[in-house]
Specification:
The chain is of the alpha+beta class. Helices cover 36% and strands 35% of the residues. It is built from 3 helices and 4 strands; from the N terminus they run E-H-E-E-H-H-E. It has a 4-stranded antiparallel β-sheet. Strand 2 and strand 3 form a beta hairpin. The mean pLDDT is 95.
Length: 97
């Protein structure tokens, strides 16, 4: 099976960047503890404090699906509903030459 890479880019609504950051950082240790999680990293944009990036690597599709259905992920999605201006999600596979 191939690893799954997720790159999720979120932009907070004006004045909601700290609230979004708090919710996002709370999910990191819970997600890292999940079976099949290889990497789960939160990044803050260097010059735009309203933009955040999750970089995730999952062992396989089943691990990613379990994450998406987890209680903490579903709670996280509810918590960010009113504070996110934009959310882009990229599901990637590593290109091998």
């Amino acid at each position: 099976m191939k690893n799954i890479v997720i790159n999720a880019i979120l932009r907070a609504k004006e004045g909601k960047e700290e609230a979004l950051f708090q919710v996002m950082k709370s999910i990191v240790p819970l997600s890292r503890a999940e079976q099949g999680c290889i990497q789960y990293t939160l990044h803050v944009h260097d010059t735009d404090p309203r933009t955040f990036v999750f970089y995730e690597i999952w062992e396989h599709e089943e691990a990613l699906e379990a994450h998406i259905q987890s209680e903490h992920y579903l709670k996280y999605r509810k918590q960010i509903e009113g504070i996110v201006e934009k959310r882009d999600l990229f599901k990637l596979r590593v290109w091998k030459a």
